[in-house]
Amino acid sequence: MLRLIFLFCFIFTFSNVYGEESYTIKKGDTLWDISGKFYKDNFKWPIIWKYNTRIDNPDLIFPKNKLAIPIINNGETFSLGSDEEVMKLSSGENFSVNPTESNLEKYAYGSHLSFYNVDFERINNLELVMKSSPPFRVVSTEASKTYVAVNDTVRIDATSEDIKKGKSVFIYTKIKDSRWGTIFKTAGIGEVIETDLQSSLVKITKSFESIQRGFYADKYKDYSFPKPSAYREVNSDIAGKILYMTNDMRVSGEGYRCIINLGKKNNVKNGDVLKIYRQVKENGYVRNEHIGTIQVIYAGSETATALIIDSKMEISKGDSVLLHKVAVR
Predict the structure, then answer these.
(1) For residues 14 and 17, what is the distance between their CA atoms, to the nearest angstrom?
(2) Among 150, 20, 5, 151, which residue's Cα sits nearest to residue 78?
(3) Exposed, middle or buried: residue 57 (CB in 10 Å: 0-12, 13-18, 19+)?
(4) What is the pTM of this model?
(5) Which of 145, 126, 136, 171 is nearest to 32 (CA)?
(6) In 3D, which of 52, 86, 58 has the Cα closest to residue 72?
């Protein structure tokens, strides 16, 4: 009875806040994005997945369908209209929402990454172009589940000679082959808890999406880098194009990532800022219109992964980019 009284008070107090019980999925949404939107923490996406039991595959959610979004308060998650507690968050973090309409924007995924202020120390979830595949594979999942996430285990075909107990590994999913190399996406991070001469057991500590048998794995690599101390504007002729966008979307915008055909060989490095341009034809004339801005979060040899930090209109694959500001450390 006390629990019901407490929950009634909780619902009464928070029924008008942004984290209400129903969210209508929009085109391009992922559980990762929705978790960032409501909780300011993309890593909490499994809460939404596990609460919406009708979703078999967390990678397949469809526009116009509705999701129940549990509200997080004092480390607990609740669904409005329910009389039962869902789960205890291991992090114990508190989450509160200012219900005023003017403040809702700051909870949108990516919008808290203010201009030239990417959280460089939390860069892990990204797409990468690789010339060769990661060396290991996920050969089985806990209890033969089709999809696993945080706190589940997987077995990879790395032996005790390949990797030691206690070490971290990255788990990757293959996106597609391209003429620049194979595009992989970081799907999660795990810790080796057992290892022998045949395989290693890995506990998933972070998951950016659901993990399956057949995914790739490799020793952990820290993709983050020190925050630049300043930026220097340049008149540069270093220009390229957008090759790929998150989830292979046709169009994208602020808060999402893209891959460009510029890298270290072109003197483009982590933290650099590029403007996005599109050719516009008007009255028989062609002009370049500035439509957005990106910041490099991982520079490879010939390509780079960047975050769209500003967009004046929808960004498309094939749009031109031009180096605008160089990160100074």
Answers:
(1) 5
(2) 20
(3) exposed
(4) 0.68
(5) 126
(6) 86
- Contact status, residue 188 vs residue 145, Cβ threshold 8 Å: no
Rounded to whole angstroms, how far apart are CA atoms 265 and 253? 27
Closest of 308, 124, 114 to residue 224, by C-alpha: 124
Cα gap 37→329, rounded to integer Å: 31
Mean pLDDT by 10 residues, the chain (329 residues): 43 38 83 83 80 78 85 51 35 32 30 51 84 96 92 96 96 93 95 96 92 96 86 90 90 89 94 91 80 94 93 91 90
- DSSP letters, 9-71, are HHHHHHTTSSS-SEEE--TT--HHHHHHHHHS-GGGHHHHHHHSTT-S-TT---TT-EEE-PE
Q: Which residues contact 161 (CB under 8 A, 6 or more apart)?
A: 197
Query: How far are the Cα atoms of 114, 200, 240 from residue 101, in angstroms, in the given order?
Result: 19, 49, 39
Burial class (CB in 10 A: 0-12, 13-18, 19+), 191: middle
